[in-house]
């Protein structure tokens, strides 16, 4: 999950060997940087583990696809859980990364 390394590897792959049509990524930070650059070459980026809601922005990431659902799909479950226990005050602690931004 090192975006700089992922981008470096992508550029190395693009400029060496046979032409590429698809890149595979795993985590959201790498998928974000690779997918944002890959659109310039019209390359498909497929991720098996990225859950960042930001990656759902098809205008920003037009060639990005994933097999792992976005984190936003967990929200209805969280709300139902809170309602089940009649919780009215909920605090969320998160790390400030693009993964958690919408």
Describe this entry's structure for a reader.
Keywords: G-protein coupled receptor, Glycoprotein, Membrane, Receptor, Transducer, Transmembrane, Transmembrane helix. This is Gamma-aminobutyric acid type B receptor subunit 1-like. It comes from Priapulus caudatus (Priapulid worm). It is found in: Membrane. There is one protein chain. This protein has 3 helices and 3 strands, in the order H-E-H-E-E-H. It has helices spanning 3-14, 28-38, 75-84, and strands at 22-25, 44-47, 64-66. A 3-stranded parallel beta sheet has the order 1-2-3, covered by helices on one side. The chain has a single domain (3-100), classed as Rossmann fold (3-Layer(aba) Sandwich). The chain is 32% helix and 11% strand. The radius of gyration is 17 Å and the shape is elongated. The mean pLDDT is 86. The chain is α/β, with parallel strands linked by helices.
So, the CATH homologous superfamily?
Response regulator
CATH topology: Rossmann fold
User: Spans with pLDDT under 50 lasting ≥5 residues?
Assistant: none
Coarse structural class: alpha/beta
* Tally of strands: 3
CATH architecture: 3-Layer(aba) Sandwich
The largest beta-sheet arranges its strands as: 1-2-3
Number of helical segments? 3
Query: How many discrete domains?
Result: 1
Radius of gyration: 17 Å
Nearest-integer average pLDDT: 86
Q: Characterize the main sheet.
A: 3 strands, parallel
Spell out the helices and strands N to C.
HEHEEH
Bin the helical content: 25-40%
Quote the beta fraction. 5-15%
Question: What would CATH call the class?
Answer: Alpha Beta
């Amino acid at each position: 999950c090192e975006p700089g390394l992922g981008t470096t590897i992508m550029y190395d792959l693009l400029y060496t060997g046979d032409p590429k049509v698809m890149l595979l990524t795993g985590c959201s930070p790498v998928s974000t940087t690779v997918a944002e650059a890959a659109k310039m070459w019209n390359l498909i980026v497929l991720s098996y583990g990225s859950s960042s809601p930001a990656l759902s922005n098809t205008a920003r990431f037009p060639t990005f696809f994933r097999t792992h659902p976005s984190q936003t799909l967990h929200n209805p479950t969280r709300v139902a859980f809170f309602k089940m226990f009649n919780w009215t005050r909920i605090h969320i602690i998160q790390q400030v990364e693009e993964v958690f931004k919408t």
